[in-house]
Amino acid sequence: MPNAVVATSPSAPTPLIAHRSARRMGALTARARESFPRRYHRPMPRFAFTLALLLVACGDGAADTCSTAADCAGGERCVDGTCVPGVDGGTSERDAAPDDDAGGGCPSAILCGSPPACCAGGQECIDGACLAACESGVRCGADLATCCGGGQVCVSDVCADVGGPCTDSYDCPEGAFCEPTLERCLPQFDPVTCRVEPTFETFEPTIEWSVESATEHPSFDQAIVMPAVMDLDGDRVPEVVQSFFEPGGTECRGVIRALRGGTGEILWSVRDVDGEQVSGCPTHALADLDGDGTPEIVTMRTDGRILALRADGSLFWLSTRSDGSPYSVGDWRTFANAAVAIADLDADGAPEVVIGAVVVDALGVLRWERDARTLEGDNDGYVGGLPVVADIDLDGT
């Protein structure tokens, strides 16, 4: 006998009940009858006859009828006088009809686990076990039997209170970390396991491009300092700015070149600036000094004056004192192999340039300088000095 189909008519809006072959398709239990939404019980218009449910299955005969579970095959239950498959294990949860299994029934209407057990009142089925209901919905512990309080989370199988807001773990107290999803501080896991051992395949690097000669100032082909990389022309392809000097040259006299990042093509070369040659020894820095959206290149001349070039290689400024007179940090030995740093030191929105113990503003005007005798900095950096700028006292500057 195929599975039964029951439709409601305008005069008899009874709940839908359908039985499928117990051995092949499972069954709709008495729960469907009891929990069917009330809004579907309204009478239908008299001029319409609606087929409310259609279940199609190929059966191999009529379903077995029963009075108790003893009348059914192994692993089956007796529901509404029909043998149906028993409840699977795991997290399954089923309502049990009053006439379910040997006539005993399940008062809580919750069967859990395998073989199915009837949960007591106030319990729910969690991972195949009847556990006390958890109002917060946050369970903890190896067996999930612990119910965390409102606002708590489960960390290392222990209910923990949520800490203050954070953006990274430096915002959290010792022994806590910043959980990135909640953006709140949580107690650190115990034990902490954050060891990652990546695996690498053997690879052979290949040269994408190189610059070994130039048509302009060809004798300047040696480089000893780090290049600076930044997009100079706004085409979203970075350029490489590099200093070069002559073999056996003295006083670090050099040439600055800008190279196209994708090909190594030389875009421009600068050797002399306002009558004095640039230095090939300091490590220069790139930053937008004037706020026009394109970076400037800050480096040194061999006479000790700080200079800034625009992105096209033209001169932006040479360092001066506040009265407009030229300012120099000293001869070439003073700054050879030094590095330039750029940062907003006074939080006024405009950057300052730091070289050794000298600071000039975004237009190259001297702000202050120190010498070795004050023990506040050393401007005699023959072997090079790497200035580091940081807000140590957390005052915002």
The amount of beta strand, in percent, is 15-25%
What distance lies between the first and last C-alpha atoms, to the nearest angstrom? 85 Å
CATH architecture term of the domain at 228-374: Beta Barrel
Helix/strand-derived category reads: mainly beta
How many strands appear in the DSSP assignment?
Answer: 27
Please work out how many helical segments DSSP would assign: 2
CATH class of the domain at 228-374: Mainly Beta
**Overall 3D form:** elongated
Uncertain stretches of 5 or more adjacent residues? 1-61, 87-103, 375-379
Strands side by side in the biggest sheet: 14-15-16-17
Oligomer: single chain
Mean residue pLDDT: 76
CATH structural fold name of the domain at 228-374 = Lipocalin
| H/E element order | HEEEEEEEEEEEEEEEEEEEEEEEHEEEE
Major β-sheet profile: 4 strands, antiparallel
